[in-house]
User: Fold these one by one.
Assistant:
Number 1:
Amino acid sequence: MEHGNAEPARERANVSRNQNVMYVLPYDSAAIAQFMGPVLEHLAALEPADESGRGPRAIVVTPDAEGAIAIARWIASQSSNAASAIAATGASRSARLIAAHPAPLIVGPPDQLLELVRRAALKLDDVRAVVIAWADVLVDAGAVPSLEALMGEMPKESARSIVAARTTPEVEALVEQYARRPRRVGAVPADAVEPLAVRYVVTGHATRGAALRQLLDALDPPGAAIYVRSDDSERDVRDTLRPLGYRGDDIVRIVRESTPSAALVILYDLPSSRTELEALAASAPNQVVALVQPKQLTALAALAGSERLSPFSLDASLAAARATDQRTRDELRAVLELGLPARELLTLEPLIGDFDAASVA
């Protein structure tokens, strides 16, 4: 998980005044730019200093190693310095790297970051910005004790940004404890409770392309709009569609906003807001399918306004296609067992002499 300049500009201005921010954003890589962009600009605005011997200027807490790598990769893409961020996915390895190549940003799960602090490998005195992304996933993973111990070591004056895919009492408790009275970005309106018909396919982040191909094979829509929120996602989708024979944006279109009409809308990324999902759903009533990671299901349910979403089983669709093929074979067997009329045999006989039976069939 990037578009438009007015809102990010306001976010940067608020972060620079050390104001805490609460983001409600989908749990995906397309959202990273929205909450990390202001943090990078905040750090750039700080007084220049010799980084040698200093601790990091920002700490980003993630639910797992995969999230840490995604954020560190995005940070590296914004800087010519490849060592601008270290993904602390293992305490021993990260301790060695931090000692050899100090980085202004350290990103990692709370247990790994806490272990680095306890080893005195990670100094937090110079931290000016703390990001907790995604708080709701951290709560679900049972990582709150490690997070609380880590946050107890952070400088009180550091700017706080908390990201969550959905707000829950547990998330609000973390906001109250670590980022009181934050400015809120992307919150779902309280009155948006009308359930939307959204089906979903569970897949991994790296296997969304394969799931997209299987979904198109299973449904064979006469037209479809595939929704993405980032350049990386758009490249992935184009790389998936090209070998399938789709050209341009005729039958299957890649969109970043609602489309006038579509036989099917596929959410390759989750929409950033309920309003955006409503507009996409209006494009294809009852024909919206989301490709989601297991950790995104609760966020999708919150956006759709329904605690019980409808799964779309690719296995069931393929089984139905196989059943249709089997019925066709059974019909052919029945015809063949009765014996073909002589006229058809005379028509086919010259072809069988020139081609194998499979080609004639």
Number 2:
Amino acid sequence: MEGQQLTKLSIYTSKDIKEICKFWSRNNYFDGITPAKLKIHLLWKYNSQFTTLWIVKKEGRIIGSCGRIETRLVSRGKFICNAPWGIDSLVDASLDKRERRFVFLKVFRSANREGHQRKEPEVGFCFPNQVVKDAYLRMGYLDTPIFNQYSKDIDREISSDDEFTFTVIKRFDYRWDKIWGAISRNFSMSVFRDHVYLNWRYIQNPDRKYIVLLVKIRNQIKGYFVLREKEICGRKVGFIVDFLA
């Protein structure tokens, strides 16, 4: 389309952030968040070690975006393939239907062909919003409703085996990587979880407060839990958002 410019952003300038905040705000993306909090969110999420964002501009104005979080799958501790997550797929609502589709395909293709250009094996994942879900399905993505949420009322104190201890930590350090390497060799498939990734994902997250627990059996670290709590309809609810054992 005439006047469009494709740009890859991995390290933002203040001007980039301001323009992306405007684009997301006028399209009610992250509805209810203040521009100041949105700026903090962008600076955290688009850490160049893990994430990139492709945008399309028209006459200097952002009209489309598509991001990519880099992760890796390992089997028995050995690399299998890249497993990027597609995020923040958005096209300006002011465009007509034909141009919206064109812009989405343009940013999506650019964000997801990096692995192909590096000639590295990869399998892509995403949680598309309803606006772009049909486009993902038409491009060959599979709809796999395999994620479930289980809940349990806790109305009594749960006893714990004396062999198990749980320690709250403020961050993972380099020593965790050796433990992760040993644990990962027990699984046919797992997502790469070194201390740098885990700190970025859970400890440095400015939007949500997580509680991270190391699990020990007879003083040997055997895994971790990542927890979050919130109130729903006046009741305190706890979520186990990640664990490795």
Number 3:
Amino acid sequence: MAKRREGLLNSLLSLHPAIIWVCGFLSVVLVSTDRVSERPLLAVGGFAIIFSTAILGTYRTFFTRRTVLAAAVCGLFFSGAHTWQNTAELKHLALSLLGGAGVASVLVLAALAYRETVGRGAHGTGRWIRLSLGTLLAYFLWEAVGTVWSENPGIALKLFTRELCVYVGVFFFATWSACSQPSLARLFAKGAGAAVTVVCVLMLIVASLHVIGALPSSLLNEEGWIRIGPAPAEWRLQFPFQHHNRAGFFGMCAAFLIPAFVLSYTQFSWRTATGSALVGVIISLLSLTRGAQLGVLVGGISTLAALTGVRTRITLIWATAVAFIFVAVVFLSPHQRGHWLESILVTPNRSVGTQTSLGNRLIIQSITLELISKKPLQGYGYGSPIFEKVTSAQYPGVAANIEGMSHPHNFWLEKVFAAGIPGALCFLAFTFSRLAALASVIRTLHRQQMLPTLGLLALLALWFGLEIGIQAYGLTNTVLR
């Protein structure tokens, strides 16, 4: 029996390289189809987590019985707490059991990832990586407890099981697989990079067809390929997403991922890196998403700061900032410049609404702060629908007048609202330790001062810039999904 299980595990870990590459490619394609594939993708991810945990959890080489038993007890306690809240509905009982399985699976995968990272990383890098795993697990467990005391436990349980268990479980599984099977992880990453490049090329083609008037009018609507503003000249690229903010976020990420994908096949070149990064930059400009444009600027500066020596960092940072301002003044359309000018001239008014996206965001964020002050420690529970229900109940007049009350439009306010201050601090520690681990590796490569490490240094600098860019984008929108 043990030999059969070992053979099954080895066969899973030695899948054909082409299959791994295709999996990476399809993962990005499914994400780019936006809300159409969101639930099926989460369902597949959840099944993969529970299945992989069931396979790996039977091996003593990975776990001790005590680890598996502790995870199972936590899962049963979670299911029991939610079942005790509402034992009348069979659907709720099934969801409670599924949520318990998700909690147990995440705990097992967290132990697996932590064990694999022990002893890895020099100059404190390994400690930062393990700290990031521990703080993410602490955040996850706090959110799990928060679903029990939430004012809407049914909704919180459903979203926690369907989304957060999958996100956190995939992160732990990816950490373990990247450490134990680095060649397969690189194949998956290359497949994902190829998909990002293909999707971006298609986005630019759609934008070009609209400019020459070749797109049918049926694709020009609020959730179509191109979103038209009050004036025909005011348009925003959305394809293949259903909202321009998601398209802008994808373009911002592509500005760092495409150069990393290209440089993984070629020697490091400033021209190659810059030219391939422009694909994502152009998409972020065409989407008219200010958060994404700010993320590109901040992330680009962070990439240059991580890639260059101390003496040239300040010069490059100023040059990048000046170049961005030059592009904004010279190449952006009057509507795009007006979109940025709106950020300065906004005057929020709760009773009437400002009819500007930024003004509405400021109002929503002020309401979020008021709600947080009422429950600063425990929060209200995970999930955007909970935010909608709470704001509609406590601020019905504002919810009726203000557009975009689906979430706080600030990632960190969203974390505090959902998990309270303790949960948000755990996620902040997770974010900081993850960035510190990257910075530690980059600093080590700078100390080596060896030419063969330049390609790896460039990839890590792009990764660091992407992380910082996401943090900048998160000040105006949701980034977890």
Number 4:
Amino acid sequence: MTKEDFEKIKELEDKARKIESEAKRLKGSGEYDLSVRRSQEAFELYLKFIFTVLDKEVREIWGHELSSLIDKETEAIKKILKEYLNFSESYIDEIMARIKLGSLTLNLWRNLAFYGDEKLKKYKFFKQKEAELALEYVSELSTLSAWIKNYFNNKFYS
């Protein structure tokens, strides 16, 4: 990856941060379903940023549920966290487990958060606690994204 490639890829992370901010605002105004939906979108973009920075081919998996890619690329992420941040193996495993849980959970909530359930004629499912949990998953991935971005910033700009 070149420095120019990295600059373009950072646009994904910038977009994720904007969407994360919107999800926080929506939660604050009581729009919990939309907050959950926007959280899922931010989470997905952060993951795609990470995998793209790691030079992994994500075009073929540009779906919404990325846990299989998380499983496949765990070692690449762990290597960066260990090299750059000197994290313990157990802490890195915990981070990876939380990312996978966030991906699976937010994917399950995605359609309900946006469309509701036609059969039940129910269009608002989520409460404040779910919106907070969704934002917690996003925050964890946002932190990982920032660590990885800093790692590559140091690599290209040191």
